[in-house]
Design a protein that fits this description.
Layout lengths: L1 H19 L5 H14 L4 E11 L2 E13 L3 E6 L6 H14 L3 E6 L9 E5 L3
Parallel strand pairs: 3-4
Antiparallel strand pairs: 1-2, 2-3, 4-5
C-alpha cells in the first residue's frame, strides 16, 4: 500500500502541475493536490498536526504536515525558486517525528514537475 500510495501522489502532482503550471502560491497547489488525491479515492488529511516529543514528553510545540495520504505518506509542498537541503531536512524531521516511512517534497515552481520532486525514506 505504501508504494501504491506513493505512485498516486507522484501521478497526482504531475496532473496538478500540468493543469496549473508554475507561478502560483503554495496554497493553490495544496488545495488542488488534495482534491486530486481524494478524487482518486485516497484518504487525505490537510495540515495534520504533528507533536514534538522530547524524552517522552510532549513539548507543547506542534508542527503541521501539508498532507498525510492514506495515513502513511507525508507530502510537503513548496512553490520556491529551488529546493534546498533545509527543505529536505524539514521533511526528514517530519518523517522521524511521526514515525512515517515515506515522504515527498514537491516544488511546483518549476518548468517540469519531475525536476521539483524529491522522494525521501525514513529508515526507522
Amino acid at each position: 500500500m505504501l508504494e501504491e500510495t506513493g505512485r498516486e501522489v507522484i501521478d497526482s502532482a504531475l496532473q496538478v502541475h500540468r493543469g496549473l503550471g508554475p507561478g502560483l502560491l503554495e496554497n493553490a497547489y495544496l488545495e488542488c493536490l488534495a482534491y486530486e488525491l481524494r478524487d482518486r479515492g485516497l484518504a487525505v488529511e490537510r495540515q495534520k498536526p504533528l507533536a514534538l516529543n522530547y524524552r517522552g514528553l510532549d513539548m507543547g510545540i506542534g508542527y503541521r504536515l501539508d498532507l498525510l495520504v492514506n495515513d502513511c505518506v507525508v507530502v510537503e509542498l513548496k512553490a520556491v525558486r529551488e529546493l534546498t537541503t533545509l527543505h529536505e531536512a524539514q521533511l526528514l524531521s517530519y518523517l522521524k517525528l511521526g514515525s512515517y516511512r515515506l515522504g515527498f517534497l514537491l516544488n511546483f515552481n518549476v518548468r517540469r514537475m519531475k525536476d521539483g520532486m524529491r522522494r525521501m525514506v525514513n529508515r526507522l
